Amino acid sequence: MDVNAIVNFILNPLVSLSYFFQEDILLAFLPKEWFWLVGLIMNLAVVVVILVYLLGNTLYMTLAERKVIGRMQDRYGPNRVGPFGLIQPFADMIKMLIKEDVVPAQADYWVHLLAAALVPFPGLLAFAVIPFGKGMQGVDLNIGVLYIIALSGLTTIALLMAGWGSRNKYSLLGGFRTAAQMVSYEVPLVLAAMPAIMLSGSLALNTIVEDQAWGAHHPAWWFFSLIIRLASFVVFFISGVATAKRAPFDLPEADSEIVAGFFIEYSGLKFGMFFLAEYFGLMTIATLATTLFLGGWQGPFVDTIPVLSVFYFLFKVYALFFVFMWFRGTLPRFRVDQLMAFSWKRLLPAALGLIFVTGVGMAVLRAIGWA
Amino acid sequence: MTTLKTEQFILNIGPQHPSTHGVFRMMVTLDGETIVDVDLVLGYLHRGVEKLAEGRTYLQSLPLTDRMDYICSMSNNLAYCTAVEALAGITVPERAEYIRVIMAELTRVVNHIVCIGFYLNDLGAYFTPVLYCLREREKILDLFEAASGSRMTCNYIRFGGVAQDLPEGWLDQCRKLMAGFPAFIDELEELLSTNEIFLARGRGIGVLPPDMAVNAGVTGPNLRASGVAYDVRKAHPYSIYDRFDFAVPTLRGCDCYDRYMLRILEIRQSLRILEQALKYIPAGEIQSKVPKALRPPEGDVYHAIEGPKGEFGFYLVSDGSVSPYRWHVRSATFINLTVLPYLCRGHKIADLIAILGSLDNVMGEVDR
Predict the structure, then answer these.
(1) Does B195 touch chain A if contact means CB atoms closer than 8 Å?
(2) What is the number of domains present in chain A?
(3) Is the ipTM of this complex over 0.90?
(4) With CB atoms 3.0 to 4.6 Å apart as the test, which of A280, B15, B37, B164 could cross-link to B23 if both were Cys?
(5) What pLDDT digit, counting tens, does each position of B72-85 carry?
(6) What is the pTM of this model?
(7) Is B348 close to A335, i.e. CB distance below 8 A?
(8) What distance separates the 2 farthest-apart alpha carbons in chain A?
């Protein structure tokens, strides 16, 4: 093992590992007729890595949320199970797995079951296209953003099924509210993503990230795009909080009114699926916002030390997570009609205004030649 | 164009619910999310307190009063004791009167901050205001425990005075706590009073017109937030309240936000009273001589105090024996709740929860 290999490994561990796995293990040990399998196995390996990361992340996000909100409320969060409560998520996971699965007698059994089964998968699928670092992306679809937006629509269907299938007026109410809220807030969400797409000229996420580098365009363009991105980040973030059904938009699961809303009749593993889906949704919004507006994995020295890109990306994502928790610990929630009014009367015009400003600015800058 | 035919359905916001402040059931007729009617079902916490008291002596019924409105036990004690003293013609020494006023006003502060904290919980602010308010309440409960031996069901105020004298250093600790309290109320106001979401959820919600409030018999902060300046401490002064300099705040908005704002203003007025009481409290006896088996003369009396939730009164009928012939409680919250259906019509479910939170009910007092 020469020094070069070791240095390469330190600078870019994940990509080096994948090359090592491909060249020195698969290609070395597989017989020649089976080389076509290598592509498939490498893709599966990427899927496994992303899944493991996501599930571990979700587990510890639940703990982080409880501790951060606890601190905001002048108390410790969980701190009994393991040092600083670090084994708490495993305790929660075990509890969820061993609980009895209770299905209401009059409920529509298949709808009830299918809703729980379907709900986490759209959230998971979104991470195939998110660039976690320089050169670290599941697949660089050239319609990356469109793909993610389409998946969030699928989640809405699963939630409606859950609200209906439980045969419970509270969960029906929760289902109504969910449908109304998701439909209302996806519009400003997508429209707020438009300026970022217009500036980069592409729907592919990696291209959007690379377009935000300092040297990619004329400095005037860079500053213009910075302002536009920050403004549309605000609109996107607020719409994202609403799409993820987090406070102050957590009406569908308003605990103090309809006691868990659409997943009131779920217990055990099915409840766990809804729980996972909620955190995947949050993670999707946070990573998408980081990629589109905050520069994704960009940061100082990212070209020479690619592993830093992962740290920059995760730092930005976790900063956004902290803001989510901050909102939850501080703000009361909106009423359903105020929620709709806010979306259609405030966010939508803001997003449309931003698209207009972006278009005009881009045309002007291109005409001057400062593109 | 034909309108879509919709059906109304009845939602049972049942006795077990995080936001009904106790076991309280409402059958809500809904059209979508809009409330058409609310049917109250009370009595889940009925313990037969009034009948129990008929079989006990007057002193033995005193702990029953603690447990009615369990957040304001000192106030309940005071109401009962002043009623019995009016019936039996017992006088109370000076120091005891001052201690009673201090305890009553501390109870008012505790009740209002608990009400505000839980009102915000109902609005969805995920327990953070509750914990801030409960943190301050704990400091006051420490004082109650030092004086009476118990944090919540104090059973401290007795006929003719109080049960025992304040321990050493109690007054200084109380003064120190009251000196720091305005800062806490300011912190609470800073977070809440101008919060846009809080205003949107409270302004114009659950408007209680003053004439309806007076007709229905609503009293307390709910009445004063509708503009009617009726406070039993000023209208029919009891104890030594006529010696203290305090204002009775009223607001004109009649909605949930004003009920919250009025409670904040009342806390500040209570702090004023406490400051004066703590300054002028004399030394002296703490209970006048009262026979253990009290036999009040035949007759009846109705005596009310300004409890934190409204006019809390006792109607006692004595037949000359050690037990009362009739022992009736005028429960402020029971009467306040009767306007709930009117307040909710036309609003959404989320508003129902907010209105219930702003009316400040404790089922122990409603059901007795």
Answers:
(1) yes
(2) 1
(3) no
(4) B15
(5) 899 999 999 999 99
(6) 0.84
(7) yes
(8) 70
